[in-house]
Design brief:
By secondary structure, the protein is an alpha+beta fold. The protein has three domains: 2-45, no CATH class; 57-115, no CATH class; 117-169. The protein has helices at 2-6, 33-45, 101-113, 119-163; strands spanning 13-15, 21-23, 73-78, 81-86, 98-100. Strands 3-4-5 form a three-stranded antiparallel sheet. The chain has a two-stranded antiparallel sheet with strand order 1-2.
């Protein structure tokens, strides 16, 4: 089934002498063209990349993505220089598949240096941080109260059991 969902032969096309897909004159399509391309879109969305069990700890790992096809840039080292490489999709228009870490760091540094907040933005961030802390403190206090109530119930049940021991003869 997987082969049918990926092979254009099943929508009535065959590879011509130049390698391009052309209409077949010898067989009928088994799958409609519309269904075939809907399935292709779903398959692309469900693609899962390979995850390694032991990842080497490089800075910016998992952070950079291709702006066109959104594939991740993977770090690798060559001759002592750290690079990031993206294995973009065939139809991706991105021409920069490799980046030196030093170039990325320089770009990030330039962005950070140019980052400025207005007094209103700084005030809004401070007030949000204060509100978030107050909410967390309130939630923490409710959890403590709930734990204290549970402790009290357990103590009362233990006291009851001690006072009303049932004897088995």
């Amino acid at each position: 089934m997987g082969q049918i969902l990926k092979n254009k032969f099943y929508i009535g096309l065959v590879k011509g002498s130049d390698g391009e897909w052309v209409d077949s004159i010898s067989h009928e399509p088994l799958v409609s063209v519309k269904t075939f391309y809907q399935v292709q879109k779903l398959l692309i969305k469900k693609k899962v990349s390979v995850h390694y069990t032991e990842k080497i700890d490089y800075p910016l790992r998992g952070v950079m993505r291709c702006a066109d096809c959104e594939r991740i840039y993977t770090p690798y080292e060559k001759k002592g220089i750290l690079y990031f490489y993206s294995r973009c999709m065939d139809e991706c228009k991105n021409t920069t598949k490799n980046w030196k870490f030093a170039d990325i760091a320089d770009k990030i540094k330039g962005l950070i240096v140019g980052l400025h907040f207005t007094d209103d933005e700084l005030e809004a961030m401070d007030s949000r941080a204060g509100t978030d802390i107050a909410l967390l403190e309130s939630r923490r206090m409710k959890e403590f109260e709930q734990i204290d109530r549970q402790k009290k119930v357990v103590r009362e049940e233990l006291a009851y059991l001690r006072a009303n021991r049932l004897h088995h003869y």
